[in-house]
Amino acid sequence: MGSSSALLSSLTAATNRLSLASASSSSFNGSARLLVSRGAPPSLVVASPPLPPLQIRAMKKIQGKVVCASNDKTIAVEVTRIAPHKKYKKRIKTSKKYHVHDPDNTCKVGDIVTVVKCAPVSKSKSFVVAEVKTGRTPSTQLPAPALPSFEPAASA
């Protein structure tokens, strides 16, 4: 009996040394997982393939009106949304301004533009102009109303 229990204990010890255990590294999102064998030297640590990165696909394209085009290669686009009030359910108009990269300085104030989210160009710009629908040009503006001429009546 003594030899069989010694054989059993040596088999369990050998099994424990050879079994693989999953240990995760101390990375932020846990994307790097390591397979570590118990009792093996640290040089034999095998890394598993990393997980694919998380992708956010919200709000890729937005459409708005150019309200400022005085900066070089930057325009300010105002986007207006209509959403119901949380409590009263009345539709409320909200607007937000975005700084948008305009590499060719083609946009003018009043243009309707479609902008697309991209990698950040600067601290405040993470959108780029995709399509420009021109607004009212100076030639199509309404003319100023003509005032009637005032001539004093001639006294006889």
UniProtKB/TrEMBL annotation:
Keyword hit for Ribosomal protein: yes
Protein name: Small ribosomal subunit protein uS17c
Tagged with keyword Ribosomal protein: yes
Localization in the cell: Plastid, Chloroplast
HAMAP family in the cross-refs: Ribosomal_uS17_B
Key words, A-Z: Chloroplast, Plastid, Ribonucleoprotein, Ribosomal protein, RNA-binding, rRNA-binding, Transit peptide
SUPFAM superfamilies: Nucleic acid-binding proteins
Family: Belongs to the universal ribosomal protein uS17 family.
Region listing for Disordered, in residue ranges: 136-156
NCBIfam families: PRK05610.1 (NF004123)
Protein source organism: Sphagnum jensenii
InterPro entries noted in UniProt: NA-bd_OB-fold, Ribosomal_uS17, Ribosomal_uS17_bact/chlr
Transmembrane intervals: none
